[in-house]
Amino acid sequence: MLVENFLAHAPAGRPPEPQLAQALDALLARARAAWPQLHLDEIAFVEWLAPRAKGALATLPVDELFLAWACARSDGNAAQVLDARYLTRLGSAIGRVDPSPDFLEEVLQQLRAKLLAGASPRIATYDGAGPLMSWLRAAAVRTALNARRPGAREVAADDAALEALPLSGPDPELAAVRGQHRAVFSEAFQAALATLTPRERNLLRLQAIDALPLGAIGRMYGVNKSTVSRWLARVHEAVLSATREALARRLSLDEPALESLLRAMRSSLELSVARLLGPAEP
What we know:
Low-confidence stretches: 150-171, 267-271, 274-282
Mean pLDDT: 76
Strand content: under 5%
Number of domains: 2
Number of helices: 16
Order of helices and strands: HHHHHHHHHHHHHHHH
Largest sheet: none
Distance between the termini: 37 Å
Structural class: mainly alpha
């Protein structure tokens, strides 16, 4: 069955491989030996591998292709291996663009999202034509250069974005207060977002803009969705608390009015984050 599945998915005109069954068995044995902690679905892996097998099977970097395949299938163990063995070694490449620790963390989080998130994660495009480390290094540098572009890391809250904030919602009294203190609201909310770490900002982007389910975000970080839920809850509370403190200092509102504004913010925090932060880097 492995031979039949391989031939059905191999490139047209591929030269015949002598003793194909034995070659496939040897390939799978190498994959298992490289990453014994990862689950290997032989048929699915062979079908995925076949279009990438343009030369002799023995020459394929099957260990790195197996890891890429497992990551593309949202295997949490594979994501942890990729992070520990590869992504953590990209600091020097990213540092040539910007050596600051915050920038490094920001780019790595964006790269994780780019590689592992969504229905078609970018890691699935790795074809084994060169070392995985070189392929990842190029992706990291591209992501870092994009992150340095004006507005790529944070989107300014201009008037158009402010109109979409929850504080401009249907309550006429709230809308009037918001309109009266437009600049204060903008500064308070952006200042609250600025207190977040790069990982916290990226978590909000992944949830609010990319609309990833908690389970998918968890697989990117090697944790379960309950942990992601707790992380996001803490981030939401941190943003709201910091915003509330700034508003309380700047506005002459009584406690009920201030709490009404914060409840309105809480009801659609995701929209605010989407407008103010912009998308995570692809």
